[in-house]
Specification:
The complex is a heterodimer of chains A (339) and B (72). Chain A has 339 residues and is mainly β. Chain A has three helices and 24 strands. In chain A, the strands form six sheets. A four-stranded antiparallel beta sheet of chain A has the order 1-24-23-22, with no helix packed on it. In chain A, strands 2-3-4-5 form a four-stranded antiparallel beta sheet, with no helix packed on it. Chain A has a four-stranded antiparallel beta sheet with strand order 6-7-8-9, with no helix packed on it. The chains are: A mainly beta (339), B mainly alpha (72). Chain B: Belongs to the G protein gamma family.
Chain lengths: 339, 72
């Protein structure tokens, strides 16, 4: 063993490795305690408790509208609070606003990048946000004047160091939550572009996020390539809870005040790219890589329906704000509304 | 990088991990049986307001129009 140049340094090195070992022991002990706690609380399965609940009958749901216009894979979509308008984004670099009742295109924006992976409608219905390979989230106010060039009013809000995977306005048009391939989520002020809070904890790309639905809710969940679903406190930036799954990636997350159901669903569903709950939470819709949509009974854990129509992978799925329909986007370049 | 710096970096990270675990350990948790009955109750209470679950008549669902709107 070589002798250190200065005796003090040797002592410090030893102290540091002792501290490190100490911390490692404490962290292992805590992990063990957490596992024990969780096991103790796992006294029963959801579907066992729900045995006496009446089963669901046959569901007849089919494509009611097909929205054609994108030149490449549809990657994301979001509903407007007016329950009829939809924004969608595509690998073709375009963001389109549709009237889902009439299938008319109301607005179209060409982004400076291809692969626009994320888009969101502002709560007021007056703007949309989008981003992707440009590593940014930009907000476009929607003009009533059809001839106006939307790109002129574009506002760059979020800046990440890797692709933008998802974005969502919070309760108002003033703040946007983003998730990124850089492993972080962030909350931004739309007007100033200021970073309000950042969320660190994922060990790899964050692929999706969803906000808790309540008015006073200050939490959201994010899912990532590290196989973790993290629940965050928006005000403090703290990770409140972390779920690990057996899935390869968590491509989509759906927050409800019902974390047990989310967790158990994550482990049942395979090859799903996007999920959303019906209004009551009883039904879970999943868009799959095998081009289908599966409808699940959340309480009983059984599949109640399988829907066909898309000619390629379903990449995005959202239930409308009043729960009367849901919309899917696909790699087959189209969007479909189902009811 | 000296081994001392490497250790300090790892220590900072280990401290963060321990802090995070302490936080998670302190969160109040309920049993799955309780959470499940809460879930069941929620679903039951909101079921009648869930159009996709209950099914609403075609006349009330704008998406179920048999004849698409035509602009004259």
């Amino acid at each position: 063993m070589r002798s250190p140049p200065i005796p003090e340094m040797a002592t410090q090195e030893v102290q540091l490795s002792e501290t490190l070992a100490h911390l490692k022991t404490e962290s292992d002990t805590l992990k063990g305690k957490l596992e024990e706690e969780r096991a103790k609380l796992h006294d029963v399965e959801l579907h066992q408790v729900a045995e006496k609940v009446e089963g669901l009958g046959q569901f007849v749901m089919k494509t009611r509208r097909t929205l054609k216009g994108h030149g490449n894979k549809v990657l994301c979509m979001d509903w407007c609070k007016d329950k009829r308008r939809i924004v969608s984004s595509s690998q073709d670099g375009k963001v389109i606003v549709w009237d889902a009742f009439t299938t008319n295109k109301e607005h179209a924006v060409t982004m400076p990048c291809t692969w626009v992976m994320a888009c969101a409608y502002a709560p007021s219905g007056c703007a949309v946000a989008c981003g992707g390979l440009d590593n940014k989230c930009s907000v476009y106010p929607l003009s009533l004047d059809k001839n106006e060039n939307l790109a002129a009013k574009k506002k760059s809000v979020a800046m990440h160091t890797n692709y933008l995977s998802a974005c969502s306005f919070t309760n108002s048009d003033m703040q946007i939550l983003t998730s990124s391939g850089d492993g972080t989520c962030a909350l931004w002020d739309v007007e100033s572009g200021q970073l309000l809070q950042s969320f660190h904890g994922h060990a790899a790309d964050v692929l999706c996020l969803d906000l808790a639905p309540s008015e006073t809710g200050n939490t959201f969940v994010s899912g990532g390539c590290d196989k973790k679903a993290n629940v965050w406190d928006m005000r403090s930036g703290q990770c409140i809870q972390s779920f690990e799954t057996h899935e390869s990636d968590i491509n989509n997350s759906s927050e409800a005040d019902r974390e047990v159901a989310i967790y158990s669903k994550e482990s049942i569903i395979f090859g799903v790219s996007s999920v959303d709950f019906s209004l009551s939470g009883r039904l879970l819709f999943g868009g799959y890589n095998d081009y289908t949509i599966n409808v699940w009974d959340v309480l009983k854990g059984t599949r109640v329906s399988i829907l066909f129509g898309h000619e390629n992978r379903v990449s995005t799925l959202r239930v409308s704000p009043d729960g009367t329909a849901f919309c899917t986007g696909s790699w087959d370049h189209t969007l479909r509304t189902w009811a | 990088m000296s081994s001392k710096m490497q250790s300090s970096g790892s220590i900072a990270q280990a401290r963060r991990t321990v802090q995070q675990l302490r936080l998670e350990a302190s969160i109040e948790r309920i049993k799955v049986s309780k959470a499940s009955s809460d879930l069941m109750r929620y679903c039951g209470e909101h079921a009648k307001n869930d159009p996709l679950l209950m099914g609403i008549p075609a006349s009330e669902n704008p998406f179920k129009d048999k004849k698409p709107c035509t602009v004259l």
